[in-house]
Design brief:
198 residues; Rossmann fold; globular; two-stranded parallel ribbon
Length: 198
């Protein structure tokens, strides 16, 4: 664990089932956990419940963010670190189930960097990688889709029985089924107001 934590350490959570889990684990360490209701349309997370210049560092993993709002709540020269899921994630699996990706069609390292730079951030580091999830049986696919309900929101064994059987036959024939895992990392620094105004 990263001990000692900074005096002011806050965690946010948007997935309701995880809020109490986060509170149970983090509040004993002095971390305040704040539930942020998920917005249904962009810009996402545009009104966070924090004062201007509240944080030296903001770490974001797989959550939507609005660069001007991140900039607002960061202190001057504060750093934003985010790992995001890109638009190629799960593409072959979603196509197999005849579903569209929930990720914006343009969401990748280039678009994220463009947004951050437009908001006045200096990009310190950027990386992108596409690997694969490999499934060796259809039961693992079912488990995975139930664990990440946002991938196929209406997923059930009954509804997708025929496609699951087809996937089972594919895995039996090939020994596995691969689908994409698309991740990217951006580390950006809020430039001081004097530099941005020039």
């Amino acid at each position: 664990m990263l001990q000692p934590l900074p005096k002011v350490t806050v965690a946010t959570e948007q997935y309701k089932p995880n809020v109490q889990v986060a509170r149970d684990r983090l509040e004993p360490l002095g971390v305040r956990v704040v539930y942020i209701e998920e917005e249904k349309s962009p810009p996402y997370n545009k009104d966070l419940p924090f004062e201007d210049g509240s944080f030296d560092i903001i770490i974001n993993r797989h959550e939507a963010y609005y660069p001007p709002e991140v900039k607002r709540i960061l202190k001057p020269r504060g750093v934003f670190i985010t790992q995001q899921v890109g638009n190629v994630d799960w593409q072959s699996l979603l196509r197999f189930f005849q579903r569209e990706s929930s990720h914006a069609s343009h969401w990748n390292l280039g678009s994220a960097v463009d947004e951050m730079e437009t908001a006045g951030f200096d990009i310190i580091r950027q990386e992108e990688d596409i690997q694969f999830y490999r499934f060796y049986d259809v039961g693992a696919v079912i488990f995975y889709l139930k664990a990440v309900p946002w991938a196929i929101p209406d997923f059930s064994i009954e509804k997708y029985r025929e496609k699951l059987w087809e996937l089972h036959l594919t895995i039996t024939e090939n020994g596995f089924y691969d689908t994409q895992q698309h991740r990217f990392l951006v580390v950006a620094r809020k430039e001081p107001a004097s530099k941005v105004q020039k």
